[in-house]
Specification:
Layout (H helix, E strand, L loop, with lengths): L6 E4 L5 E5 L5 E5 L2 H7 L4 E7 L3 E5 L5 E4 L5 E6 L5 E6 L5 E5 L15 E5 L25 H15 L5
Parallel strand pairs: 3-10
Antiparallel strand pairs: 1-2, 2-5, 3-4, 4-9, 6-7, 7-8, 8-9
Bound molecules: zinc ion (2 copies).
One zinc ion binds next to helix 1.
Length: 164
């Protein structure tokens, strides 16, 4: 018996679909310039979900693209319709940030947590008077200090003795 499905999702053209057996642990709004360019919106909301909970179904594997815009993360999108699907930090591959807009809302069984963090608020776009919502949700200019330390430790590990 496999675990019951907690939610499903897809790109706009349904070339890529996924199911997850657990709900996301947290949601984060990212205002970075890359999220903005890729989404066509002032920010992207990611639903951090255990990678091991996901099952992918891809009709045309050649259209399931992986791209890195920095040395710390990899993003996945459908090249047929352009939908950004997910992002993974290389130091934390056991978690995948699914774009909330790719989740099929009607499929969700249970309660997905509310947004718990605004990140990269230093890069917020101001066009049209847009700003980070004035709320009590914690915010970070870029990454949180704790996660920045995780990334630095990961980078040190890569450069450490024995790997050269
Ligand atoms: Zn697609
Ligand atoms: Zn971002």
């Amino acid at each position: 018996m496999s675990d019951p499905i907690a939610f499903t999702g897809s790109c706009a053209c349904k070339n890529i679909t996924y199911t997850s057996t657990t709900l996301p642990a947290s949601l984060t709004n990212c205002y970075c310039a890359t999220c903005r360019k890729l989404s066509g919106a002032p920010f992207t909301t990611f639903a951090e979900t255990p990678t091991s909970s996901l099952t992918w179904t891809v009709k045309d594997p050649a259209s399931f693209k992986q791209t890195s815009y920095s040395d710390i993360a990899t993003r996945q999108h459908c090249s047929d319709c352009g939908t950004p699907i997910s992002m993974q930090y290389k130091c934390e591959m056991e978690v995948i940030g699914l774009t909330v807009s790719s989740i099929d809302e009607e499929s969700v069984r249970g309660k997905i947590p509310d947004v718990g963090m605004h990140i990269f608020v230093d890069q917020v776009v101001r066009i049209g008077g847009f700003e980070v919502p004035k709320d009590d949700i914690p915010r970070a200019g870029r990454l949180t200090k704790g996660f920045q330390r995780t990334i630095e430790a990961w980078k040190k590990g890569l450069a450490g003795p024995g790997l050269g």
